[in-house]
Every structure is written in structure tokens, then in C-alpha cells.
Here is the input.
Amino acid sequence: MTRKIENQNLIIASHNNGKVIEIRDLLSDYNVMISSSEDYGMKEPEENGSTFEENALIKATETSKFCGQVSLSDDSGLCVDALNGEPGIYSARWAGPEKDFLKASKTIEELLIKDGSKNHSAHFVCVLAVCWPDGESRVFKGKIYGDLTFPPQGKLGFGYDPIFIPKNYDITFGQMKPDVKHKISHRSIAFDLFSRELLVEKK
Here is the structure.
């Protein structure tokens, strides 16, 4: 029988407040309480994996050990086709210590111009890792495809949202209302898989 997460605290392994807020919204219909690793005074672990899956497991495992509770991590990033999938797992690092994603978005634009490529296709990846203090873990993955646009448009969302237009839409994630984005995003796809298997809805 699949292990369920119910009537307990779920520690989000992240210091990114925007991400924690979005996760809390995504899980609002489920019988679980949300905290972040930052709430527990934990420093961010070194993400030295070579894939989204490895980095997600690093964060969730370290957080679960530190807090002694179930932990959920989200490792996500933007993969640009013309840049051979970059920034990919380094998406957050491209934004630097100050988490300046406008600067990172400008870097992507400049690299595309330098390359001379008119191919602006890209996709977002979200990998969720769930870890229990006893070492058990599960991984879930979601993707969404679209195109990049410059300059950035919209002040909603976070990260690279203002430069990404999902397929079959004509506005960026940064222009979308949260309830619309939550229905289609890479994160919502991964969370749907996660919640259907491990969570229990509120009565």
C-alpha cells in the first residue's frame, strides 16, 4: 500500500519564498500543513548533482534529516533549445546570489543574439522529490513547452516566468493569473502526479 502524507507537516526544501507560496497554493486542497526549511533555520544544501532528479533528492534528503519530518523539494529550470538545454539545472545559479532573474533573462537574450538563432523554443522542467526521515523517497516529473519572448512581460509569478510563453497561449507566465498558471505549468503537472499518489484531500 502506498504511503500517504496526511495530517502532518510537510517541509518544503527551499529558501525561495515565491516557490514556497506557489507550492502552498497548489496544495491548499490537501490535508497537509506547509513549512519551509528556512523556517527551521536550515542553510541551503549544496546542489552538486548532474540532473534535476539528483538535485531534488539532495535537497529533500538533507532537509528531511535536518528537520526529522517529511520533506518535499522542487528542482526546476528553464531549458533553451538553441542553448543546448541551458541554463537547465543551473537556472537559479544564472540569477546569482541576489536571485536576479531579470539579469539572467537578459543573459539568455544576449546569448541567443550572439548565436544568431531565431529558434526561441524552450521548456520548463519540474522534478519533485519526497523524502521521509527513514530514507524512503519518491520522484515525480513535469514539463511544459513554449517559446521565449523579450523583453520580459508581466510581474506575476517568479523566476523566468516573464520571458516564457507556454504553447497554445499568447501571454507569458509572468502575465498569467496564478489560478490559470497553476492549471497548466510544469510544476502543476508534477504536483498532480505527486498529490494523486501521496496526498489526501480535505474533507
The chain has a mean pLDDT of 93.
